[in-house]
Design brief:
elongated; single chain; 154 residues; 8 helices; Tetracycline Repressor, domain 2; mainly alpha
Length: 154
C-alpha cells in the first residue's frame, strides 16, 4: 500500500480515507475490471443486436480491438492467491461462460458441442491478450472472421 500511495503522490492516510482496508482496495480494483472488461462489453454487444453469430463476432472485435483481455491472466493468477477477490473473479468468469453458452445455444449448438465451444471460446478470449496480442496491431478482419468461423461452424 505504501508503494501505491507513493506512486499516486498521496499519503497512505489519505489513500485509506477513500478505502476501508487493503481488501476493500483489492475488491475495488477487481470490481472495476469486472464492470469495464466484462459487463460493459456485453452491454455494447447486445445494444446493436443481430444474430448470435453477429454478436459473437462483435464480442471478438471489441475484446481484441481494445485488447481487453490483457489483464485477465494476471487477475486470474492474483485471485488464486487472494481470498478477498477470488469470489468476484470466479463470478466474472462464470458470467462470461454463461453469456458465451447462451450465444452458442442460440446459434444452434447443443450437448457436448455447446459446452466445448463455449468453454473454448471463453478460454481463448480470456487468455489471448496475455500471450499473443500486440495492442498496437489488433487482428485483421480476416483473422477475426477465421476465428469466428472456427468457433461457430458446425
Amino acid at each position: 500500500m505504501d508503494q501505491i500511495a507513493k506512486a499516486l503522490g498521496v499519503t497512505k492516510g489519505s489513500f485509506y480515507a477513500h478505502l476501508q482496508s487493503r481488501e476493500d482496495f483489492l475488491r475495488s480494483v477487481v470490481k472495476y475490471w469486472d464492470e469495464e472488461y466484462t459487463h460493459r462489453v456485453k452491454r455494447t454487444v447486445e445494444d446493436r443486436g443481430g444474430t448470435a453469430r453477429d454478436r459473437l463476432g462483435r464480442l471478438m472485435e471489441i475484446v481484441c480491438g481494445e485488447n481487453l483481455s490483457r489483464y485477465d491472466l494476471a487477475i486470474s493468477s492474483w485471485a488464486a492467491h487472494e481470498p478477498a477477490i477470488a469470489p468476484i473473479v470466479k463470478r466474472d468468469y462464470q458470467f462470461r461462460l454463461n453469456y458465451a453458452r447462451s450465444l452458442m445455444k442460440e446459434a444452434g449448438f447443443r450437448g457436448i458441442q455447446l459446452q466445448a465451444r463455449s468453454e473454448a471460446f471463453v478460454g481463448f478470449m480470456t487468455f489471448r491478450g496475455s500471450f499473443c496480442s500486440d495492442p498496437k496491431d489488433p487482428p485483421s478482419k480476416r483473422t477475426l472472421q477465421t476465428w469466428l468461423d472456427f468457433f461457430t461452424r458446425p
